[in-house]
Amino acid sequence: MKTDKKLIGAGLLTAITASLCCITPVLGLVAGTSGLASTFSWLEPLRPYFIGLTILVLGFAWYQKLKPQKQIDCNCETEKKPKFIQSKMFLGIVTAFAIVMLAFPYYSSIFYPKTEKQIIVVDKSNIQKAEFTISGMTCASCGEHVNHEVNKLTGIISSNASYENGNAIVEFDNSKTNISEIEKAINSTGYSVTDKK
Asked: Is-contact 52 78, C-beta < 8 A?
């Protein structure tokens, strides 16, 4: 049925769109283009609507698939087995995929490598802490992306970016790096530093 295909396609599209803002930073990391990260951050305010639309569309598709068919009393051939794309199995796979996509922001941080580095501090008076206010971060994946880029710099002791607070608190050795280098690393992700303290 064409209606089934359209419903399944719409369900997939809305599920992917709902998490596109969180998928893009991971794709940027894999592709090596960190500036790609914030491309779809404008979709974040629409995420609840996409989630609702996904649930609505897939719910209706399941209703269509499970509702009892009218029995016609005739001597015609019995219905042949539906194609795989029209089967309950396929709809189940699509539904599972949609759930994985909708939950992506909650587990996206597993895709970022843990940066274990040995930190040698020559003079404790060189240790400095700075807070950067960042616009454009919408989920945990965004924060992980910022941490990943900042930790590439020499002299970084710790980086803690939080999308909830819209900031990153970075502790660093100012004899090896400086605030402007850290700001440049954050801005390279596609998110913008709006203030620094």
From this structure: no
What are the tens digits of pLDDT across the range 146-181?
888 898 888 888 899 988 898 999 999 888 889 999
CA–CA distance, 185 with 143 (Å, rounded to integer)? 13
Helix axes of 88-102 and 47-66: crossing angle, nearest 10 degrees: 160
**Residues sharing a CB contact under 8 Å with residue 38, sequence separation 6 or more, in sequence order:** 24, 25, 136, 142, 189, 190, 191
Report the SS3 class of residue 157: strand
Q: Are 91 and 62 in contact (CB under 8 A)?
A: yes
pTM of the model: 0.60
Q: Which residues pair with 193 in a beta bridge?
A: 134
Task: Compute the distance between CA of residue 9 and CA of residue 12 in angstroms, rounded to an integer.
Answer: 5
Give the start-to-end residue ranges of the domains of the chain. 2-69+83-108, 112-196
The architecture that CATH gives domain 112-196 is 2-Layer Sandwich (3.30)
Cα–Cα distance, 61 to 39 (Å, whole number): 31
